[in-house]
Structures are given as C-alpha cells and as structure tokens.
Amino acid sequence: MFSRRQTTTSIGNYWSQIKRLKQETAAADAIVIGAGAGMSVSAGMSYSGERFEENFSDFHKKYGITDMYAGGFYPYDTLEEYWAWWSRHIFINRYDTGAGKPYTDLLELIKDKDYFVLTTNVDHQFQLAGFDKKRLFYMQGDYGLWQCSKACHNKTYENEKSVRQMLARQQNMKIPTELIPKCPVCGAPMTMNLRCDDTFVQDDGWYVAAERYNDFIRRHKKQHILFLELGVGGNTPVIVKYPFWQMTAENSKAVYVCVNREEAFCPQEIEKRSICIEEDIGKVIEDILCFKTEDSMVY
Ligand SMILES: [Zn+2]
After folding, report:
1. Residue 170 structural domain
2. pTM of the model as a whole
3. 280 within a domain of the structure (yes/no)
4. Which residues are within 8 A (CB) of 94 and not within 5 positions of it... i.e. 6 or more apart?
5. For the chain, how many structural domains are there in total?
6. What is the CA(58)–ligand 1 centre distance, in A?
7. Cα–Cα distance measured from residue 44 to residue 71, given in angstroms and rounded to the nearest whole number
8. Is residue 223 located within the same domain as residue 151?
9. Is the domain of 87 the same as that of 160?
10. Distance from the CA of 78 to the center of ligand 1, in angstroms?
11. Considering only Cβ atoms within 10 Å of each terminal Cβ, which end of the chain, N or C, has fewer?
C-alpha cells in the first residue's frame, strides 16, 4: 500500500525532533515499543570486534568466524563443539551481564505510560531492566531457553545451570560428551529456542504474550498511540517496521518514530506523523530524558 518513495528526516534539526518526541511521549495514550538488535548494540552488547575476540579468538582461529552472529549459525562437526560455542555465547549475552543503560533509561521514560514492548531481541535485556513481564513479547525466543531439536513437544527449558557446567568443563572448544543436553521426551539433542526455522517451539508463555500484545493493540486501536521503533534492522521488517507503518497509516491519531543509527526512514504517506532520527538510541533516550521543554534549544 505504500509508495516506493521513502523519506529520511534530516538529523540537521535534531533538537526539534527530540523536543517533538518528548511531547509526543507525554501526550500519547499508549506507547508500543518495537525493539531490534540496534538497541542492544547501543547498550554495548556488540557481537563483533573486541568483545568477540575476548571470548571467541580460538573459534576465530580454527574456523575463521569473525562475529557472534556467524558463530551461532556455523555447522560445527560435533555437538561437543556446538555447545562449547553456545554455552559461551549464552553466558556472556544472557547471564554475565546487567541491564544496559539504554534499556533502563527507556523504562524511566515510559514507566508511567500504558506501554507494550514487542522485541526480536533474545538477550533478556528488557526483563533485566525491570520492564513489566506482562507488557513484553519477545517473540523470537530467549537465550535462556532450550527446546527439543525435533520440536517433538511444545515446551521450553531453562538452561542456566547446564550452561554454567558446560562453561566450566569445556576444553579445546569442546564440552564433555555427557553434558550434551537431550530431550526428556524423545531423546533427540536439545537446541536453542531461537526462531531460525520452522522447528521453533512456541510454548504456552509465547502464546500468552502474543495474545496480550494483540489485545493491547485492539484496545488502543483508535487512540493517540505512539509507535516507537528502536534499532530494527532490515532483516525482519515484517515483524515490527511494516506493521508499525500500517497501523500508523490506518489511525490518524497515531505517530510513528524510528530511531536507528544506520537508517531511519518512513513512507511518504505517514511522513507528517513520523519522527525519524539517525542517531545512537542510548543518546536519543538520554537527550529526551534531559530535555527541558522550556529550554530555548537551537532548532
Ligand atoms: Zn523431543
């Protein structure tokens, strides 16, 4: 339904956008946050560079893997290696970390509003920051959960204890064979509960969260609603970006916000009710929190 022409609002008027964003946040009846990987990158959870080398230089040397995205999908020869990789990956991104500042600042900004968070992130940062679990739908999985690799039943399993064992006992990029987790129902190897293909298990909690999200959207459909898209990349636009555009177009009281360091844009049709900011998410949220509306900032 949208024209091919898309608009990026220039960052030249940054402070006027911050002001508008602050006013819209205050005025909104409800806020729907759609968060992607850029949010965690802004929190310092980079999957490449120094943070990668510190934890995976041996995998880099042996397999030529240069970032954590690639390493997670690598077809390792053995399950011992697969779990040596994943136990480290899960540990540093899920258990050995606190809530990032962009997350705690975001909660500070919206905590008194009627809000809901839809996220493709699987690193548990929203929970760590203290967002209300009942206002959260992490639809692509969670690093803290495993499932049967054959998806023989719709249940997920918490993995912290096993992950810590794997981490402590691995050598030469391999965990001991007896630590390979098996499905308690069919005996197949367990795997990550991450949406990579059609074996992704949606457990009871997933369906409850999905229903809460749909219900939230239904209840606020005709209201002054703020769609706040943060760090959503181009890989999965059908989850957050396109629905946010669509719902903004259908509701004349809705406002669409896109904050993305790489590319912030919107379709022309909703341009007047959109705020696009190409800047670091953490900085933008900090600036909104600090901005005094009476300030005579340059804009
Ligand atoms: Zn099974």
Report:
1. 49-96+142-194
2. 0.92
3. yes
4. 123, 124, 142, 143, 144
5. 2
6. 32
7. 19
8. no
9. yes
10. 19
11. N
